Amino acid sequence: MGHFEAYIRHAWDYGADAELGGLFHRGPRGSPATVPDKVWRVQAEWLAALTEAAQHNPKPECVAALAQTAEFVLKHQADRDGIWFDTVTRDGTPKDTRKAHNLKANYHDVRALVKFVKAFGATAVAQPSPVPPAE
């Protein structure tokens, strides 16, 4: 297993929300996440990583996690104008509704969306399940 796959596997094993999609904020090293909030930059980097993984090795569980994460972000993390809330609870309730602050720039979310759109097309963002099924 390469480094990329090892990082995906570690995040999957210790921080992925298999029920609702997304990646929990943090936890102790080598243990499951203990802070179930979903922070914009964590979701963005998880979305970008899963997009890369789905492009290079479209395993059904990876594609499903990507679709679930994209759906969660579009429903709960991004507001109606497309700007991402800083932090939402596990179920998507806004916890920190700031859309900008001294550490929050558009880099993470824009980068993730650009990767996603390049991989799946702009129309994928508007679909109920934005990721095409694995072949």
Descriptive key words:
135 residues; Glycosyltransferase; three-stranded antiparallel β-sheet; 3 strands
Q: What features would you describe in this structure?
A:
By secondary structure, this protein is mainly alpha-helical. Helix content is 46%, strand content 5%. It has a 3-stranded antiparallel beta sheet with strand order 1-2-3. Strand 2 (87-88) and strand 3 (94-96) form a beta hairpin. The two termini are 22 Å apart. The mean pLDDT is 85.
The name CATH uses for the topology is: Glycosyltransferase
Query: Based on the structure given, which CATH architecture is correct?
Result: Alpha/alpha barrel
Q: Count of DSSP helices?
A: 4
Q: Give the biggest sheet.
A: 3 strands, antiparallel
| Class computed from helices, strands and strand pairing | mainly alpha
